[in-house]
Design a protein that fits this description.
Elements lengths: L10 H18 L9 H12 L4 H20 L28 H13 L6 H12 L3 H5 L16
Helix pairs in contact: 4-5
C-alpha cells in the first residue's frame, strides 16, 4: 500500500486501506500471507460479511484480491487464495438512499435563495451542489476569493 497506493490515492482511500488492514489483522493475527488458505479466506469473508453490507464486502474483497495479485507478481505467493470465494454479506445492512426529485430540488433551491445568509454557509454549499454537481470535498475547498461575483448570475 505504501509503495503502490499511498502516493496516488485520496485520503479517503488510504483510510479504507488502513481499515481493511485492521480487519485482516484482527481475523488472521500474525499469519503470513503465504500460509492463508482458500478455506481460511472463505471463513474470513463469512465472518466479515455477517456484519457488513454487500458493497462493503465487495470492497474489502477487491482490496485483498489486489494485494494477493501483487504478492503473486512479486513471488511471495504461488496461487490466489481469493479465487472463486463466495462473497457473503448481511443484506439487512444495505442502506437505501432516496434522492430528491426535481420538484423537491426546485422547492429546496427556492427556499435556500430566499434565506441566504453569510452566517449559514451550508446554504451556499447546497446551492453550489445543486447548480454544479460538485462533490462535497470540492465545495468545501472553495473560498470567497475563488468566486468572481462580477461573472456570477445571481438573478436566477
Amino acid at each position: 500500500m505504501e509503495i503502490y497506493k499511498e502516493p496516488k490515492v485520496s485520503h479517503v482511500s488510504l483510510v479504507r486501506y488502513e481499515t481493511t488492514e485492521k480487519d485482516v489483522k484482527a481475523f488472521f493475527g500474525n499469519t503470513y500471507i503465504k500460509d492463508i488458505t482458500r478455506v481460511q479466506y472463505q471463513d474470513f469473508i463469512n465472518h466479515f460479511g455477517a456484519n457488513h453490507a454487500p458493497s462493503t464486502v465487495q470492497k474489502i474483497n477487491g482490496f485483498i484480491r489486489a494485494c494477493v495479485k501483487s504478492a503473486i507478481l512479486d513471488d511471495y505467493l504461488i496461487k490466489d487464495f481469493t479465487q472463486n470465494v463466495e462473497l457473503v454479506a448481511n443484506k439487512d445492512r444495505i442502506k437505501k438512499v432516496e434522492y430528491l426529485n426535481l420538484a423537491e430540488i426546485k422547492k429546496l433551491r427556492l427556499w435556500l435563495t430566499k434565506n441566504l445568509n453569510p452566517d449559514y454557509t451550508s446554504r451556499y454549499m447546497i446551492l453550489t451542489a445543486i447548480y454544479t454537481g460538485m462533490r462535497l470535498s470540492e465545495i468545501q475547498a472553495i473560498t470567497w476569493k475563488d468566486i468572481d461575483i462580477n461573472k456570477a448570475d445571481c438573478k436566477k
